[in-house]
């Protein structure tokens, strides 16, 4: 399934929402204060590993429901991590991606100083 225009992610059990970020060829899933990178997929599922995998080996699995929402099927809970969430890293990724997207969509604008 294609995630390029989807931002809605729902955890089946907790109802937590998250955001999908695509930078070049890399897909990031910002979910509950953690950042995951897509590392593989099958016909029905996508498999995500924690971005800072040397610190923590948490994973999650997502599927696409019949309404087009990404649903976290397994993992992604605080118990699967060996550290607290870091919402500042998530916000930094979202802000940087937003600025880069804006700059590429409006190249005629000069950078602010």
Automatic annotation (TrEMBL):
InterPro entries in the cross-refs: Znf_FLYWCH
Domain of life per record: Eukaryota
Gene Ontology MF terms in the entry: zinc ion binding
Gene3D superfamilies: 2.20.25.240
Domain FLYWCH-type: 26-83
One family name in Pfam for this protein: FLYWCH
Keywords annotated in UniProt: Metal-binding, Zinc, Zinc-finger
Name of the molecule in the record: FLYWCH-type domain-containing protein
């Amino acid at each position: 399934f294609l995630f390029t225009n989807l931002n809605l992610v729902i955890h089946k059990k907790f109802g937590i929402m998250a955001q999908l970020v695509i930078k070049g060829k890399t897909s990031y899933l910002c979910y509950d204060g953690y950042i995951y990178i897509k590392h593989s997929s099958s016909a029905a599922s996508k498999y995500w590993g924690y971005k800072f995998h040397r610190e923590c080996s948490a994973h999650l699995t997502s599927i696409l429901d019949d309404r087009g929402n990404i649903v976290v099927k397994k993992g992604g809970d605080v118990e699967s991590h060996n550290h607290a969430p870091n919402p500042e890293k998530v916000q930094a990724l979202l802000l940087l991606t937003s600025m880069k997207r804006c700059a590429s969509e409006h190249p005629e604008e000069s950078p602010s100083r």
